Amino acid sequence: MIAGAPASGKGTQCELIKAKYGLVHISAGDLLRAEIATGTDNGKQAKEFMEKGQLVPDEIVVNMVKGRLLQPDAQEKGWLLDGYPRSYSQAMALETLGIRPDIFILLDVPDELLVERVVGRRLDPETGKIYHLKYSPPENEEIASRLTQRFDDTEEKVKLRLQTHYQNIESLVSIYEDVIVKGKWKYHGGRCIR
């Protein structure tokens, strides 16, 4: 499992870990966004909470995550869970299902950088690739013209999400203290280095 505040680099680190170890990268955020995009009941409910910068209730997310973790590829290759659990109750729901990580990675990034990274983040709706207007701009004008900003990537909403993150992270640390790896990260040119 990997945890950190919004825009702390979880997805980037997951892609590097996935490439090195062949694990299945499972992003709770991507699962939620897929449910929203397809207009499922879970997606509609989740969108209401996300638009307010609040955590989506456990009962909505737990079943989505459980279902994905039980798919054959995750069972065969192993998994890297990104952005979940985010609260004590979510972690306990996974524990109840017998789902526990071998390693829990916690990324620690300064708040001012997190806000800057979120507000500048853009999504290519055709490819799903994430760009940043300053740190990772699109390759050409055609791509730039179709980029969109996720509805929850505003300064106001990211500050609410950061408050929620800090309220919840200590309880996760206490649950996973026997398998935790903490990382203080430095930034150079917008890229994370350890």
Q: Class by helix and strand content? A: alpha/beta
Tally of separate helices: 9
Quick one: CATH class?
A: Alpha Beta
- What is the H/E string? EHEHHHHEHEHEEHHEEE
The largest sheet is: 3 strands, parallel
The fraction of residues assigned to DSSP E strands is: 15-25%
Uncertain parts: 185-194
Radius of gyration: 16 Å
The CATH architecture can be named as 3-Layer(aba) Sandwich
Instruction: Say what the CATH topology is.
Output: Rossmann fold
Strand order of the largest sheet: 1-4-7
Which descriptor suits the 3D outline? globular
- Total separate domains: 1
CATH 4th-level superfamily: P-loop containing nucleotide triphosphate hydrolases
Cα end-to-end separation: 18 Å
Pfam families: ADK
Function: Catalyzes the reversible transfer of the terminal phosphate group between ATP and AMP. Plays an important role in cellular energy homeostasis and in adenine nucleotide metabolism.
Family: Belongs to the adenylate kinase family.
Organism: Aegilops tauschii subsp. strangulata (Goatgrass)
